[in-house]
Every structure is written in C-alpha cells, then in structure tokens.
Amino acid sequence: MNRRVLVLPDRDAVARTAAARLLVTIQDTLSTQDEAHIIVTGGTVGIQSLAEVAASPLSADVDWTSVHIWWGDERFVPTGDPDRNEGQAQEAMLGSLPLPEENIHRMGSASDFSTAEDAAEAYRAEMEAAGDPSWDVLMLGLGPDGHVASLFPGHVSYTEGGPEAYAVHDSPKPPPTRVTLSRETIQRAKRVWVVASGAEKAQSVAACVHGDESLPGAVARGTDETLWMVDAAAATGI
Ligand SMILES: O=C1O[C@H](COP(=O)(O)O)[C@@H](O)[C@H](O)[C@H]1O
C-alpha cells in the first residue's frame, strides 16, 4: 500500500502545505483533463486548509470554472447551522473564489430534506448525474477517535457500510445525524489526503498509519496516492 506520511512542524504548516498541494494538483489535473473533481472536508485542519487555499496567491491562477467541489460528509442540520461543513467551507474558501454555483455539490440539509436518507439518495443521484466522477483529490480530517468523514469506529456507519453515500444516525460525535460517503467511494479517489494535528490525535494517527482497520482512517486510501499531512504533535506515536 502506497501510504506516505508528511510530518510538518505545526497545524498552520499542515494547512498551508495541504492548500499549496491542492492548488498545484488542480493545475496539474487541468493540464491533462477538462475538469478537476475535489472532495473537501470539515474539521479544524480541513477548514483551515480551505482558508489557506483562498488566501494563496496561486488561487488567482486557477480556472475555477473547471473545478467541481464535493463533500466527504455532512451534518444533517438546517442550512445556516454553524455545524454545516459546507457553510464553514463557504466562509473559509468558496465565498471568495469565482466558482460557478453549479460546480458546488453540497450534501442536502435538514432544510431541504425531511430525512438524511433522502439527502443521501439525492447526493447519489447528483454523483450519477455528474457521470460518477473519478475524484482527483479527496481530503479528510481525522477525529481523535480515528473517524474520517462520518465513518466512526465500532459504529454501524463503519461496520455495516452502505451505498455510495448514506445516512448516519446516532453519531458518537454531535450532531447525531449525518450523511457520509462510503469507504468504497472514498477508495475510488485517485488521491486521498488526510490532515491531522494535535497530540490528542497521536494515538489514532499511529494506529491508522500502521494499518489498524478497526479505525476508519486506516481504510482511507486512494488509487494513486495516500498522503497523511500531520503535525509533529500528531506524529509522536508513529
Ligand atoms: O465531524 C467531523 O469531524 C472530522 C474531524 O474533525 P476535527 O475537528 O477533529 O479535525 C471531519 O473531518 C469531518 O468532516 C467532520 O464531519
């Protein structure tokens, strides 16, 4: 398995590095194909990385009309709720980039759908309508418990799985109702990048990097590249 770990001094460096790599990878992708499909993540470092993308001078050189943004998971709460990953991404990055609205593929909220199952079904339809894109980069944050997207260790969200995108109930981390991509959908991505920082994640980072598949972070891998960008505190157990 092609998992690599890049250890950086601190959280700011992880976010800056992830952002720079993302911008360069988008440019590389657009030099060989018409569109780039990127899956972004919520979470502390994930959102900070998006803010770094928006702040980077390199972002002015990207043809954002050819970039599509998707999510790995979403919290099923009303639109405008501060817990929404898409709302946080909007504030950090999307709002300041010239991305056409039709290129932003948000998972549905509790304002749009009565159940998370309906939101998941709509997301599956949206992926299918886009030709089931082959994701160029899929970014994930890692929770201290080793979760990625809304796949939680020991929880049916991970142990039972589901179709490409599915509803999650009773999530151990609030809010309890979510929509997540499946492990198999994540593994369809060309490049999977996991970003993590902080000593509270060190044990899970080490277990995932050493291949302990009881943790969802360990099955996050891409077809071409699996890259962990972590800070020194999160890397202490490796
Ligand atoms: O709930 C979630 O948490 C993870 C990680 O969050 P962090 O703040 O510990 O970095 C995030 O990646 C995921 O998208 C999100 O829904």
TrEMBL record:
It comes from Demequina zhanjiangensis. GO terms for molecular function: 6-phosphogluconolactonase activity. Gene3D superfamilies: 3.40.50.1360. NCBIfam families: pgl. Belongs to the glucosamine/galactosamine-6-phosphate isomerase family. 6-phosphogluconolactonase subfamily. The lineage of its organism: Bacteria, Bacillati, Actinomycetota, Actinomycetes, Micrococcales. Residues 9-228 form the Glucosamine/galactosamine-6-phosphate isomerase domain. Hydrolysis of 6-phosphogluconolactone to 6-phosphogluconate. InterPro entries: 6-phosphogluconolactonase_DevB (IPR005900), 6PGL (IPR039104), Glc/Gal-6P_isomerase (IPR006148), NagB/RpiA_transferase-like (IPR037171). Keywords: Hydrolase. Its EC number is 3.1.1.31. The gene is pgl. Pfam families: Glucosamine_iso. Pathway: Carbohydrate degradation; pentose phosphate pathway; D-ribulose 5-phosphate from D-glucose 6-phosphate (oxidative stage): step 2/3. This is 6-phosphogluconolactonase. It catalyses: 6-phospho-D-glucono-1,5-lactone + H2O = 6-phospho-D-gluconate + H(+). The keyword Hydrolase applies. CDD domains: 6PGL.
